[in-house]
Amino acid sequence: MSKHLNLKLEDRNTLHLKVCNVLRKAILQGDFEPGERLIQSELAESLDVSRMPIREALRKLESEGLVKLEPHRGAIVKPMNIEDIKEIYQLRANLEKLAVELSVPDLTEGDKHELKTLMEEMENTEDPEVFVEANISFHQLLIKRCTWGRLLSFIETLWNGFPQQTPTLLPGQMKLSNQEHQQIFEAVNAKNESKSATLVSEHIKRTGEALVNSLG
Hints:
Strands 1-3-2 form a 3-stranded antiparallel beta sheet. It is elongated. 64% of the residues lie in helices and 5% in strands.
């Protein structure tokens, strides 16, 4: 069990998310071996938190496919498959490209104002937790006006888990994402749905490649 995890307790409302981010990063970086049992009491002691946020974090990690909760054994680390990551990001790049292209023509001025507000929030924070939440909202808003329900359902499934957490995993990701978000916003503001869609697709592909390289 790794003893190098650390966590600053700041906001109890997001404590399980902070715990989840620490554990997710440790799993993806190989601090925990595939098949290793994550013992709640040891994690709670290592992170200096109660067992409640540990339990909540492990349930979220199970939904992401990073751990498996087994009766009488607790949480077991699942093998991390690089091919799974490649598949997720390639699918996201293609499906979100289509959704953005369908959505952008119908985005309202209010939508664009909200996009700009979210973009400024990401630019003005150094807190990865704040960035992640604004980043999720930014990407969701880009496809808000897409009316293809099945397409949106597929995208939502792909969003479950670590794809949205790369700012906590990759050095320099926040700064680079901000630059790419600015380009995306300019294309959206110009009502250029084709360019907007292509930029979003390239943004997702670049992030996926960076994540794979960091884990290789």
